[in-house]
Amino acid sequence: MAFLTLIVPLYNGSRFIDALSRNLLAVHQAVADTELLLVNDGSSDDTLPRLQAFLQTDAARPLNVKLIDTPNGGVSRARNTALAAAGGRYVMFMDQDDAVDASKLAALLAELAQSDADMLHFNADARYARQTEVYPRDRFLTDIPFSSYAWSYVYRRAMIVRYGLRFNEGMKYLEDGLFVLACLLRSERIVTSPQAVYTYTDNPQSVMRSVRTAAQTQKFLDDIGAAVKGYTALLQAADAAGDAAERLHEIRDSFQFIHIVNMLKAGVSRRELAARLADAGYDYRLRHYPSRFNRRVAVAALCRLFRSQTLLGILAGSRAMYYVQRLKAAHRL
């Protein structure tokens, strides 16, 4: 059994393959016991033949690699397909246009192996995680800001299999966080490090950064609402208590905040706003937000507005909420 399975979905990623190939070779050299799963998610460019050509090179022959070609179904389906084929003790996800520091990853995987923890979290906020340390789950939830990026963790595969944890294939946006939190809640211990293992590329053509059509905006709002309901279900089923339970409510309320901000930015009608909030179970309280990780004045001011059903109704559809986009930049989980 390989120690690590590294899963990389690709969609129309031909221009990234040279850099990705070099990075995968570096990971293999640093962590020889690695299984690579590359998933071509129905690309319409030459991603597949370029991957096939790379795998035929002399440099790639030592790799333990599988290339999976599937019809286009989105990143969640591609990841789930790879999870079903994975054989490593732990699994990790990487995006096609990002990079991993192989030597830093190898060092932290050694810590993970020694501790036999359920998860590894790297790129943690150095203001709260000042050194590499093993955290019990509830202390992790309480003391470390929640990173909703699937790529910032390594996961015990047996835990994923045992509890049937998967990405929500019906969501195009914000699907990572629900998977991450579900895994955290099933974990007992998490190795946590501020080490910058992963370099995220802020790609203007990515799903989250590209300009959305009207239909895509509606899907985005749908998925934020689904995320709020998903976080609510997770916190209701969790066995956390005390400060950890409070933190789960903070995470849920932070996404409710994001939900409201984006509806107002989109200029939804008063009726649509009320309907979407009712569907997401909003009680006009936001009792657990802002959190201790985000005490910015702009966020606190918006939360006060969002606790008033009357004010929200007035703001709905108002062009004044164009300026929320600037205020949203101050928001972090």
Automatic annotation (TrEMBL):
<feature type="domain" description="Glycosyltransferase 2-like">
    <location>
        <begin position="6"/>
        <end position="150"/>
    </location>
</feature>
<dbReference type="GO" id="GO:0050501">
    <property type="term" value="F:hyaluronan synthase activity"/>
</dbReference>
<keyword id="KW-0808">Transferase</keyword>
<dbReference type="Pfam" id="PF00535">
    <property type="entry name" value="Glycos_transf_2"/>
</dbReference>
<keyword id="KW-0328">Glycosyltransferase</keyword>
<dbReference type="InterPro" id="IPR029044">
    <property type="entry name" value="Nucleotide-diphossugar_trans"/>
</dbReference>
<dbReference type="InterPro" id="IPR001173">
    <property type="entry name" value="Glyco_trans_2-like"/>
</dbReference>
<protein>
    <submittedName>
        <fullName>Glycosyl transferase family protein</fullName>
        <ecNumber>2.4.1.-</ecNumber>
        <ecNumber>2.4.1.212</ecNumber>
    </submittedName>
</protein>
